[in-house]
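Homework help board

Subject: predicted structure for assignment chain

Our instructor gave us this sequence and asked us to write out the predicted structure in token form, then describe one feature. I got the tokens but I'm not sure how to describe them. Can anyone check?
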Amino acid sequence: MYTAKDVGNLISKMYDECGSGSDEESKFVAVLKEYEVYSYIIDEENMLGLVGTLNAYLAPRDIDELYKDLIDCLSEDEEYYTAEDVQDILFNELSSANFKVETFKEAGVMTNNKGIVLYMNDGQEFQIEINGSF
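My token output:
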């Protein structure tokens, strides 16, 4: 599940990469307005204020959905991967290479983060956590 900090980092990245008045900016601004947080976010001067605003006005599930909707908005023009996308890619590649692999969720790892557990033939076990970096 994505957090307010994840959304804040993504919004900052989007503002940095988009020119003012660009098509890209208008797309993600529309998403922020849909969640009724645009007016609060646009007035914030720092990340701490942005994260606090998101936490104050949105439930955790809504924050997660906002993040996914913002990624979808970006994905129309460029290829962006979420942590879940990368988890699926690694899972499929390692599974096809005859490794025993489980997602964190399947393996019962107590976290909301995305990742996989890789089981080696000699009994070793590796946990690979996937975190996006913006």
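Reply (TA_rk): Your tokens look well-formed. For the description, you could write something like this. Residues 83-130 form one domain. That's the kind of observation they're looking for.
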